[in-house]
Amino acid sequence: MEWSPDAGIKVLGVALTDDDGWIVSAAGPASGICPDRGRRTRNQHGWSNRSLQDLPVQGKTVTVKLRLSRWRCAHQKCEQQTFTDRLPTIASPYARRTRRVSEIVGLLGHSAGGRPGERLMRRLDMPVSDDTILRQLKRMPRSFPAMPRSGSLA
Description:
The chain is of the alpha+beta class. It has helices at residues 99-112, 114-123, 130-139; strands at 10-16, 21-27, 32-33, 40-41, 44-57, 60-72, 82-84.
């Protein structure tokens, strides 16, 4: 229970499922910070669950089940009246995979392509479809300038 995916995240339990995968149950921070005002609040409005695919352990898939809180901003005139915990070091908003798995998916997509990358990811116990690999590849920032097309040369 010493392992935690990020500061403020509390691991509640780890279990091995019937289908040979690990489930890590975790809860978000005990307070939230309003993205508009930057003020800390403990006024909880509700909660939501997120399931994230993480790196495999001992040859078995890992799913992180996060329980995140919705918070109410303490400032009366804040336009952002309620907000959800954001965990940028773990995953992007609405993501289904942790950042570290997404990075591997992008790198494999860049080197192997869609279907070969899908087969390799399945073999590494990180099942991802070929379409997802190509989508992730499109989202990756370019680290080199675009080459001019042959028709646009002077």
